[in-house]
Specification:
single chain; 181 residues; alpha+beta; Immunoglobulin-like; 2 domains; four-stranded antiparallel sheet; 2 helices; 12 strands
């Protein structure tokens, strides 16, 4: 849910109209034309400025509302001053929308970074050099995620009985693996 504060200004002959009692007299759903009886209350800020707030629900809110406000300016003979119309919609709360977009973008960047790191590791293993040094299999980077010839992993080589060997190893057991950059 996001609460959005809406504002409007009332003036008559270029003079701000203060101490009015504006009310929302119509609030029409722009999807189906239905009217709601749950209309927000309007309050004065100062110098002809007024506000009301509306709580948008992520799941139950309509696309938007058309609103007609009676400013309460009974001394004005001008309907343009007496009535104000406006459209409100959930996307009016930009800071919430921007925060959601940023959060999604940050998540995508983190996922992409992890994917690039994992892809570079696979490329380094597949294209890098493998050497048996003593009873260890040593993997060297090919230069995809690290400088070429950087040790990226070490494995102990074991025979079928689980003894260290450098000849005809039966299995390898991870000893060290550098973290993905």
């Amino acid at each position: 849910m996001s609460e959005v504060i809406y504002t409007f200004y009332v003036e008559n002959n270029a003079v701000p109209e203060s101490s009015l009692t504006p009310t929302i007299i119509k609030m029409i759903d722009i999807e189906d034309g239905s009217q709601t009886s749950n209309k927000p209350l309007v309050s004065e800020l100062s110098d002809g400025f007024y506000k009301f707030s509306y709580m948008w629900s992520a799941s139950a809110s309509p696309v938007g509302y058309l609103i007609k406000i009676d400013t309460g300016d009974l001394e004005s003979n001008n309907d343009a001053t007496r009535y104000i119309t406006m459209r409100i919609e959930p996307n009016d709360y930009l800071s919430s929308t921007a925060a959601e977009i940023k959060s999604s973008a940050d998540s995508l960047v983190a996922s992409a970074s992890t994917l690039v790191g994992n892809s570079n590791r696979i490329l380094d293993i597949e294209h890098g050099t493998w050497k048996i040094e003593g009873t260890e299999l040593v993997l060297y980077a090919a230069g995809f995620g690290r400088a070429a010839d950087t040790v990226i992993g070490r494995y102990d080589l074991l025979d079928a009985n689980g003894n260290p060997t450098s000849v005809s190893p039966y299995q390898r057991v991870l000893k060290t693996l550098v973290t993905i950059p």
